[in-house]
Input
Amino acid sequence: KGNKFAGRVPVKDLSRAIKQVSGAEIIVLDGEIVRDISILAETSGIRTVVGTSVDKSLRPRGIKVYGAQDL
Output
């Protein structure tokens, strides 16, 4: 929140990192946005996820997802 950079974390540690950062609204990934990341965002109050690509079968609910092709 407030455009603060929370840090870099491996995707495998993303769930734990989100729980430690209160008020996070955006996740920026150097990789594909897949179902697990979408669900994590939805259940953690994240509003937007940006990645290099978006899994074509992904149907996010309540969040915005953007791949490089969308920017």
